[in-house]
Amino acid sequence: MTATPGYAARDNRGDNGFRIRSTSLTDTCGLPDSVEELAAISVGELDWTGSVLPPVRLLGRRVVPVAELVPDAHAERVCVGSGPVLDRTEIATWVWPEMSDRVPPAAARVSGVLAPARHWRTALTAAVPFARFTSAAIVVPREVSDRDDFVSSCLIRARQFGVAVLSADGNSVRVELEGRSFADTAPAEQTAVSRWVNEVVYDQLLASETPAPSRN
After folding, report:
1. Three-class SS of residue 201?
2. Contacts 24+ apart (CB under 8 A), 149-157
């Protein structure tokens, strides 16, 4: 495997003062199951591929990413020693036209971002920023989805942004609204935000014990 010419081979984990940390959502979302178990069941209903990663705070939102490694890109980065880069200021330059041949390839494929929360407004606020470049879904308690005004409030807004909506009751998860899928579409144009999210997820994949292989 030959490295992409011109980009720096290094592992830059500086984050320009922005601390990235995994966090539990259990105390804040009020959903009946643990976040990890709830996320795994929800991802099965959504038919997303990849590893369900630990909850993390991204863009000020608590979310659960689902992703898989891109084998060729990952192998290339291993060969040149280019680990995840978490500095948002540096990554902002990666989308400049003159940098196209000088940055490492995206080594993670984000299948989707899940946002569980007690209130649908909180969940939707968390999910919408990611719906621009990957599949996104929210999970709310069944008691919320069974309310009379749920369709006129939550579902209409979620449909506008292409966000899937699921409701949970114990170990039972039900799809209330299908969201926009990126599985069979051309990759969205990379932005500074999407590249940074990709690097954070890549870092999480490498930290996980058994990252799921990418499907060709």
Report:
1. helix
2. 150/120, 150/176, 153/120, 154/120, 154/121, 154/124, 157/124
Is 21 contained in some domain?
no
For 62-100, the pLDDT digits (tens) are 999 999 999 999 999 999 999 999 999 999 999 998 998
Q: Is residue 213 part of a domain?
A: no
Distances (CA, A) of 146 to 141, 142, 167: 9, 6, 9
At CB < 8 A and 24+ separation, what contacts does 158-161 make?
A: 158/124, 161/124, 161/127, 161/128, 161/131, 161/136
Confidence class of residue 5 from pLDDT cuts 50, 70 and 90?
A: very low
Whole-prediction pTM value?
Answer: 0.80
**Residue 7 is assigned to a structural domain of this protein:** no
166 lies in a domain? Answer: yes
Number of structural domains, the chain? 1
Structural domain including 178 reads: 26-207
